[in-house]
């Protein structure tokens, strides 16, 4: 079955859009087509949160409320969801409890950022957290910038209403919403446009293979947290877009005692509980990945597919011995992740191939994991240097090592010389640490850019090798552990 409309719910009513430009964002539709102007545009790149809206989707028989950046989310990605904007929160009985709290705590001044903040807190009030405290609130607001009010009254408003939220009118009509969403049939193909310009959302991998065979020049989209910027900032005229979000076989997570496999359309937020269980450093990296809005939309495999030299997951997954599955038509091949990256923005992938999933190996009892993300600010920042280490130690001897860095070359890359320098040596010998650090200079020739100089990057990489090996050796760190404490908080205790 197929349909020629992008379809979603608005205020309990089904909306069918049949004539949208493939590049149209959800924000454009909300403001220009529907004329709902409460949702604002600030940065147009998913950083400021002024455009935050909430998508309600069915997950395991109940509604899940996902805050997203409407400025970089394509309209077609709202297909099959309920779109909730700030205008929808108030009822005839008055403001929503979140809005009331913002008023009571004086959480708004100029008001431009307020709708996005309210929507982030609305989503938080419906989130399934075991406990909502100040740290959880700070994480929820990391993707919302406010330059007038300061965050203290906003955080206080969140603590007033989100810690023990009362049922609202969305809870009251959850059953009706689920019934309406069930009308968007799973496995149904969506194709809006013509052969020259279209937005397509195939419902199966067979349909995806057919589309790619006929349109090898089409752009594949999973979360659009990167591709959205190609449109809003790069002004790229993407005429053919294929979204993977309706293919159920790509939305799977498989776990065994020794491995974790993540499908192509699994978001960071969906994968994070499984990834976090592997190691505390990986858990903290996941929390620092973008913002809640970015983690709700962006995908783990998409972070690999875009080929960025400063992506967060590739160095970690390379260190963990990850293997990609690529598919063309009905034929698949497997490829070690480190062999996928060839050169800057060049990957080992054919035009009709797509990344189907990634499998990472869980560390064993003798393996030690260390992950370092070096940025100018703690939250929602891109790495200057990203270092990931898996070091196997038996007795005091390093028997195996996998070290990978991002930001040190045109691609995420293993540090083979550093690995060889420490294998067979004592983990407790300072000479081992120094040998690994010195070998890094033979592995990389970093470049200078607006984030960091080449000299800075090399010095940081050398120091991270020493720091990681010293920590694994059990030597107390003489500096603050990079993930141990927050550098700043939205509001003081």
Give an overview in words.
The protein has 18 helices and 21 strands. The chain is α+β, with helices and mostly antiparallel strands and 493 residues long. Residues 480-493 have low confidence and may be disordered. The radius of gyration is 23 Å and the shape is globular. It starts with a strand and ends in a 21-residue tail after the last helix.
Kindly name the structural category. Answer: alpha+beta
- Helix content, binned percent: 25-40%
Uncertain stretches: 480-493
Major sheet details: 5 strands, mixed
Percentage of residues in DSSP E strands: 15-25%
The total strand number stands at: 21
Average pLDDT figure? 93
| Backbone CA Rg | 23 Å
- What is the CATH architecture annotation of the domain at 248-361? 2-Layer Sandwich
Number of helices: 18
CATH top-level class of the domain at 248-361: Alpha Beta
């Amino acid at each position: 079955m197929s349909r020629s409309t992008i379809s979603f719910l608005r205020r309990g009513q089904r909306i069918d859009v049949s004539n949208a430009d493939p590049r149209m964002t959800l924000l454009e539709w909300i403001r220009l087509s529907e004329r709902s102007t409460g949702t604002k545009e600030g940065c147009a790149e998913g950083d400021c949160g002024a455009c935050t809206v909430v998508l309600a989707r069915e997950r395991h028989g109940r509604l899940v409320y996902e805050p997203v950046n409407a400025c970089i989310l394509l309209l077609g990605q709202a297909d099959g969801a309920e779109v909730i904007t700030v205008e929808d929160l108030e009822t005839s009985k008055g403001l929503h409890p979140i809005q009331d709290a913002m008023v009571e705590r004086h959480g708004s001044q100029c008001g431009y950022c307020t709708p996005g903040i309210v929507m982030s807190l609305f989503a938080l009030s419906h989130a399934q957290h075991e406990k909502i405290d100040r740290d959880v609130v700070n994480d929820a607001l990391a993707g919302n910038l406010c330059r007038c009010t300061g965050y203290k009254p906003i955080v206080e408003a969140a603590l007033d209403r989100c810690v023990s939220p009362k049922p609202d009118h969305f809870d009251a009509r959850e059953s009706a919403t689920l019934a309406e969403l069930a009308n968007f049939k799973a496995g149904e193909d969506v194709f809006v446009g013509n052969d020259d310009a279209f937005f397509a959302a195939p419902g199966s991998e067979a349909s995806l293979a057919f589309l790619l065979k006929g349109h090898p020049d089409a752009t594949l989209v999973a979360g659009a947290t990167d591709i959205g910027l190609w449109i809003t900032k790069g002004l790229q005229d993407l005429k053919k877009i294929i979204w993977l979000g309706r293919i159920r076989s790509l939305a799977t997570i498989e776990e065994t005692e020794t491995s974790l496999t993540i499908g192509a359309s699994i978001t960071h937020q969906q994968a994070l509980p499984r990834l976090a269980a592997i190691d505390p450093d990986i858990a903290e990296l996941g929390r620092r990945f973008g913002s809640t809005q970015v983690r709700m939309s962006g995908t783990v495999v998409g972070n690999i597919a875009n080929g960025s030299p400063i992506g967060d997951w590739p160095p970690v997954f390379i260190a963990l011995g990850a293997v990609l599955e690529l598919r063309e038509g009905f034929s698949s091949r497997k490829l070690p992740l480190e062999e996928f990256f060839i050169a800057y923005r060049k990957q080992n992938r054919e035009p009709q191939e797509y990344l189907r999933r990634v499998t990472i190996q869980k560390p064993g009892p003798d393996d030690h994991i260390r992950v370092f993300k070096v940025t100018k600010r703690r939250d929602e920042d891109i790495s200057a240097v990203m270092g990931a280490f898996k070091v196997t130690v038996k007795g005091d001897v390093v028997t195996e090592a996998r070290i990978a860095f991002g930001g040190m070359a045109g691609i995420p890359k293993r540090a083979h010389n550093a690995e060889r320098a420490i294998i067979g040596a004592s983990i407790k010998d300072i000479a081992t640490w120094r040998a690994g650090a010195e070998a890094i200079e033979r592995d990389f020739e970093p470049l200078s850019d607006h984030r960091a100089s080449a000299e800075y990057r090399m010095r940081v990489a050398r120091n991270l090798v020493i720091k990681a090996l010293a920590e694994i050796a059990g030597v107390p760190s003489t500096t603050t552990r990079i993930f141990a404490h927050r550098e700043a908080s939205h509001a003081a205790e």
